[in-house]
């Protein structure tokens, strides 16, 4: 991604880059003939004069970006799109932005490299966005860190990145609560289906680094086993990939083990719905033989057969908080620019908020004894 | 939504509106003191000088808008967002736009009034969008018609509006195919669950006006009954609202009728999944006692219990076609502007494409005898 600069325009117009800058910022100081030459070069190159757009009129386009890194909201294996947690978050952020009078742009960036950094920075420089909500699959995403350091308003959603403003749900506490509930309903052989390796580093310890959502749910699961006096069994922890298919496969795999689990906690609802289908196909009764718990409390959970016990996070509240937090950063930045305040001072005051989750109990788990 | 004009700026600055226009378009011709006065008024009013933005630099922001009229992608009854056909279309359009190097903005406009027209026109005038894909719930939406008349690139998605470029699926043929399939599998008492009244005008005849998707599916259902020699029964046509809940209620209502249907065709998959749950709760066996057919062929259909027979429309192909068509209109408009061609000539050549649907047969319908 090679970006055009005013030097390219200058070269094409046969003038100095200072002249181009003058045309962009103070056209009244440039002779009409020179202005025309520069304008013709700008048009020919399709050059977007970011600096000009910014300095001529400091217009807010009242637009925010939601950027997903290292992932895709698309189901690449199929032409059929699907209901994912990410879609739901984007829709809910769109609604929260709408209410605040903002438009939300959605972008997927497959890499955390320089090109991605330039891309997002240009959105800011061109005045196309005022702030960014980032969805990352690990803490310390270098693009987000750098944008934050440069003073651009950014909020991380769903990851407890210690270096950034962020909004997260209490994944670890949720994992613990699920195991405790299953234990109280009589389950003793509790299995877990995690997210894919890109979102869940196997072998990471509970004390090491910042966990992803999937890792935090796993650590909560380990906490729960420990609290209930149950021994973790590696063969009962299966890697999934958030899809219906992987939940189906994981449940089938767990059913075919010598010692079959009596409960499966799946890291999201889609995998849990796949598991319900696998158990139905195998003739395993839910919840009498195996209890099933999901995560996300999607609307469909009331209508699955049987209805699905699932962890609820206050997504609407979280999205509204994230947008509010981002708008405050935007306002703060605008004040700083007008007052030439110290940008480092503002960065010290990070806002990092964790929202509580709760378990919604339906028919896929046995009643507590 | 009262829009600011340069007259408001002129009043606030205590100058004539011609002076404001001059400041916006030819600042070099205005005395510095006057320029400052006008700029201060612009800042104070947060006025966005569309005309200036347009005429100063004819920059493409490479952004398209997807605008939904008279509907909402949000589930207003609940904080839990959900997988709707609209979300899927937006996601698929986003992907198609992405591939073409464009960003897609998403907007819901609850009305078809002057304010909505001004809102979208301003997006065009301010250079914030290059084109619009409109999702409408009836043909002849006045906002879309007027924008089209004014020469702004617009494509209607999902509605066969005769006055606009559009992309639709063959809803009527699909309704016919569903009834024929059910008939061949031995069903004789075939019920239909439609969309809500805002999307489906009861009593509209097959020859009258342009049908909505829901109406076209209903007409296809009537065609199918006729072809199979079955008599339409008004009590077997129930109004739903596209939600899981309404499918549940409609199926329960149909089950409690004196003469119970032996098949239910629901206008979308979400209602069909709600119906499967209602039949499960009532102990009615699917498909042996009642067959169930949905519409949209969502990814979940493989995993419902039993898996759901559903109508598939080539959404990805449709979205890619819609984006391609829109980009061609945008290019055409840019050429016209540079050549001062006759805009009426271009409008004569409407592109209107209907995509075929096909029935994906799964376990919620009986095999053909």
UniProtKB/TrEMBL annotation, chains A, B:
Transcription as UniProt keyword: yes
UniProt cross-references to Pfam families, sorted A to Z: LacI, Peripla_BP_3
CDD domains recorded: HTH_LacI, PBP1_LacI_sugar_binding-like
Source organism (scientific name): Herbaspirillum seropedicae (strain SmR1)
PANTHER family in alphabetical order: LACI-RELATED TRANSCRIPTIONAL REPRESSOR (PTHR30146), LACTOSE OPERON REPRESSOR (PTHR30146:SF153)
InterPro entries associated with the record: HTH_LacI, LacI/GalR-like_sensor, Lambda_DNA-bd_dom_sf, Peripla_BP_I
SUPFAM superfamilies (alphabetical): lambda repressor-like DNA-binding domains (SSF47413), Periplasmic binding protein-like I (SSF53822)
Presence of the UniProt keyword Transferase in the record: no
Keywords: DNA-binding, Transcription, Transcription regulation
Molecular function GO labels: DNA-binding transcription factor activity; transcription cis-regulatory region binding
Sequence ranges assigned to domain HTH lacI-type in this UniProt record: 4-58
UniProt-recorded name of the protein: Transcription repressor for pur regulon regulator protein
């Amino acid at each position: 991604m090679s970006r055009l600069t005013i030097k390219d325009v200058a070269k094409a117009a046969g003038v100095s880059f200072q002249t181009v800058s003058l045309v962009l910022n103070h056209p009244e100081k440039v002779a009409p003939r020179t202005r025309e030459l520069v304008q013709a070069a700008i048009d020919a190159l399709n050059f977007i004069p970011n600096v000009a757009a910014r300095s001529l009129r400091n217009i807010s386009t009242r637009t925010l970006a939601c950027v997903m890194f290292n992932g895709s909201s698309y189901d690449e294996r199929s032409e059929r799109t699907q209901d994912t947690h990410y879609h739901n978050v984007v829709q809910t952020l769109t609604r929260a932005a709408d209410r605040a009078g903002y438009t939300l742009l959605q972008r997927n960036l497959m890499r955390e490299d320089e090109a991605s950094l330039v891309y997002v920075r240009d959105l800011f420089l061109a005045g196309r966005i005022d702030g960014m909500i980032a969805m990352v699959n690990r803490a310390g995403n270098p693009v987000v860190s750098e944008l934050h350091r440069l003073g651009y308003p950014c909020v991380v959603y769903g990851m407890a990145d210690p270096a950034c403003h962020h909004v997260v749900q209490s994944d670890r506490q949720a994992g613990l609560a699920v195991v405790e509930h299953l234990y109280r309903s009589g389950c003793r052989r509790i299995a877990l289906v995690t997210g894919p390796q890109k979102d869940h580093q196997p072998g990471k310890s509970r004390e090491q680094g910042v966990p992803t959502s999937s890792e935090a749910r796993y650590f909560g699961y380990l906490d729960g086993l420990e609290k209930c006096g149950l021994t973790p069994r590696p063969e009962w922890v299966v890697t999934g990939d958030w899809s219906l298919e992987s939940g189906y496969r994981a449940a089938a795999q767990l059913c075919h083990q010598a010692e079959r689990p009596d409960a499966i906690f799946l890291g999201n609802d889609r995998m849990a719905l796949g598991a319900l289908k696998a158990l139905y196909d195998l003739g395993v009764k839910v919840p009498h033989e195996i209890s099933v718990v999901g995560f996300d409390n999607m609307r469909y959970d009331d209508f699955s057969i049987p209805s699905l016990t699932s962890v609820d996070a206050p997504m609407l509240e979280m999205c509204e908080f994230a947008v509010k937090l981002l708008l405050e950063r935007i306002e703060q930045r605008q004040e700083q620019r007008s007052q030439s305040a110290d940008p480092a001072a503002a960065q010290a005051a990070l806002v990092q908020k964790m929202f509580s989750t709760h378990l919604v109990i339906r028919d896929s788990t046995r009643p507590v004894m």
